[in-house]
Predict the 3D structure of the following.
Amino acid sequence: MAVDQLGIAGSSMPSSGGEPLGCVVSIRGSQASVGLPAPPSGGAGQAAVTVGRFLGIRSGKSLLIGVVTEVGVHALAREHGYRATALLDLVGEIKEHGTALAHFQRGVSEYPAIGDEVALIGPRELRLVFNISGGAAIDIGNLQQDSTIGAYIDVNEMLSKHFAVLGTTGVGKSSGVVLILQEVLRARPDLRIFVLDAHNEYGRSFGDRALLLNPRNLKLPFWLFNFEEMVDVFFGGRPGLEDEVDILAEVIPLAKTSYLRHRGSATVKKIDPKTSGYTVDTPVPYRLADLVTLLDERMGKLENRSSRMTYHRLITRIEAIGHDPRFAFMFENANVGGDTMGEVLAQLFRLPPNGKPMTVMQLAGFPSEVVDAVVSVICRMAFDFGLWSDGAAPMLFVCEEAHRYASADRSIGFGPTRRSISRIAKEGRKYGIFIGLVSQRPAELDATILSQCSTLFAMRMTNDRDQALVRSAVTDTATNLLAFLPSLGTREVFAFGEGVALPTRLKFRQLPPHLLPKSDVVGAASEDFVAAINPDFIASVLERWRGATTNQRANMEDGSTVDAEAAPLQPANTPDPNRFRILKKPFGDAAQPDQPAGSPSRWPAK
């Protein structure tokens, strides 16, 4: 926006009534105290001086811009003839004010002197201050001080240095996030956006521009999980037993080599599993069937009953999780088609976008025991893809309910998930991976991760701990504005940081009703829902409830459980169906199983 379009050139000292409102009475660092004299009869000058207003102080050729953070009546001021005093936080200055070269810059290079006149700045100065020119500027609403002036964000500054949207429930936080993301999509068509939707509320907000992923259509093979994530899955989100974890660390690399030998050429089959170079974290395919076979073979060679039980418990644990239909997105047909890592990455991160540059991961339908591990593997793969592609596909990773995955309390949550998010926050910008944090409880969010967000959108908060953490994360001089967070209205927000011209109070633009975030479950019932409740309704709920944890393939009419598509991938050497009988045998006979090694497997084809 050009200066002459704003009418700045040749403007005089602005004020609401054409006269100065007061003068500077003291200076301390980045703050100035302004004495406000009693208005003349019928005047209303001081009535306009209130918290959040911007005032201008003439200093040489510059017009210093300050925001009012406190207004009060002090005895000392009254002794000098002032009716009240206002405390200003100096946030920037308009250089060459009153000329065609007028421009705004943050910071103060020329401090005012005692007695300098102070006045309200007018719309022309406000437009000059909040003018963010360039194609990367997005409009998200309007200034609270003047509703005719748009609230602009520098999207490149906001993304490259990360951002956070913080506020309590019911203040318009989710709709603000939707508005920001919609504008980001328009300004940065090259960007991919991945949203972790904790409550399945963003599905309707982006229409056909977003791919919705949930347990029904997601294929995230278990072998993409690293060792810590896999242990978390096998042990249901609880710490793993040391003996069993040590066994897994030894056997998983062998299972990866076994799969490679099974699928490879004659040369590959000669590879010694112990020297293949695979580690527990190498993202290559392997099968649970091979893993169970290797564990079974080791168990059969043991003579100590206690050691056998350790293997028995581990095998039972693996088979139980692999047969659980809730985990079908990880284990069902995980190895059909071989190495599908490229296809998984293309689906998750929209490469190419094919008209849908955004992915919304609806987490509410996933088993609670593995949500943290799923978030961990996706965050880790996003960072690693950016790292190994040299930032070729820039991506914004938006984490709703961020305090759940990156808690300030290190004893809460899953450590690898926190580390994955922290890694993006600290290093992601180098590789084109940016992060946006959304939280209603900032006090529970890891302060180190939040400190990496250089643009903050702070909405209404009433909790003192939440306000204190946000205050510690804000580096702007106008942190005193945070004291007014409890009084903000719905959709109102204080914006701080690199993405905005000045710390300011603004209001998010209202979204159309059909784009407002809304849970897929809450509110789905009709007004006469209670009247429809009857035994048949309860029976249908129970059927769905039980069906969610029932393996339907095991209940086919002909009794068959074989997946014909996966049959060619069955290993030649499968576990003995009676292998657990050796747990009851005398120690001396443990090394001679009752059945040959080639007996049919209990493990269904995947």
